[in-house]
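Quick one: structure tokens for this chain, please?
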Amino acid sequence: MLENALGLLNAGLDAIQARLAWVATDPFDWKFYLQVCSWSVCLFESYLLLRQFPLYSKTEPPPVLAEHFKPETFQKSQAYGKDKAKFSLVSGLYKQVVDSAFLHYGLMAWSWKVGGKIISLLGYGPEYEILQSIAFAFTLFFVSSLPSLPLSVYQTFVLEEKHGFNKTTPALFVTDLVKSWAIGFVIGAPFLAGFLSIFKWAGDRSVPWLMAFLLIFQLSMVVLYPTVIQPLFNKLSPLPEGDLRGRIESLATKLDFPLKHLYEIDGSKRSSHSNAYFFGLPWSKHIVIFDTLIKQSKPEEVEAVLAHELGHWYYKHPTKLLVLSQIHIFTILALFPAFLRAPPLLRAFDFPPSVAAKPPTIVAFLLYQMLLTPLEAVVGIAMNAVSRRFEYQADRFACELQTMLKDEKMADIGDRLGRALVTLHVENLSTVWVDWLYSAYHHSHPTLTERLRALDGYKGAVAAAQSSAAKKEL
């Protein structure tokens, strides 16, 4: 059966490659196409910011939030949002100009040449394509990331500092940067080696094997990131015994949530923003709560936030998102072979004929991904829509806990979740006036106004269902 499935899959992939055969033979100005696409996306994102910007001039919050925001807090929120919008507009255009210049002057071709020189110093020649690919990838990453460093410095030490959120010291900033680069190399080099080895081994039949490899890598990172990587940047400590721990453990037990560890993370080490999340494999889950969230909210409100997070687990949202990501990855990989053996593609980006004649896999793949820029923007909008739907479902789950668990202590959990969401927005100075198109493109969560309105609807539905059930009993 597996052999037949693979046969059908390969036949379908062959048909796709036949349709795209022109890519390997026909000349096309791919560089101009990419410049047009990347600038179109950049200008569209700038247009969205300009749509959003006038909303920061409003002097009062939406009526549903008026009682929750003090005038001075709302003004701080508006000022913070306006400054972030200005920064996003300038930094977005700056990055686009830099990327466009890199593209025009052949940064990728130069990086491949430098990668070859690096491995030659180690005694290896161009026949060691995988080794040169690793050197190329990290050369390209290092050079292309340098222009954005001043933006990161400004964002951390000027923008976030101005509004009272930055807790990062210059020494910590540099340490984090060096650590992230080192981790990128330690993980990225073996990953690239494995990824490229599968291409070399399987050739045109590499798609199912690459899918399996990427899935294993994703699942491995689910375990490795919070247990090995994140502790290099933050301290995870067991949540102390007390009211909050008791509430969370009790809720997890009632829902049969496989809670293994309950952590508090020192998010305040870098920022006063707050959050909470869970991670792990299906049979072993870990919950992480930012110390800032614990300080800013009451235990019963943090419990409500965690009830929302457990809603994601109950409805299997992480698994569904993983499936969607696999479909997305499959689509990308299925179309790639046509671009793998396409000398005109590399020639369009200034690679010499000797390299373009036999395109290196990593170069062809990176160029191919860049060509997908406009499609990826559309995929991002679709994924945001899915994510927002999941957020609504998780909110509804929290509101229905009283009925589900038959626990009167959960009667007000919808109200508690609403208060917690308001507190998070107030403490984080989050924007409360949001343009609908800007939100659709950028936000994976509904706006606060939308969520509070939905919570009222869920609470009303639960109350109506309980009233109906009580009448039937009578």
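The longest strand covers residues 259-265.
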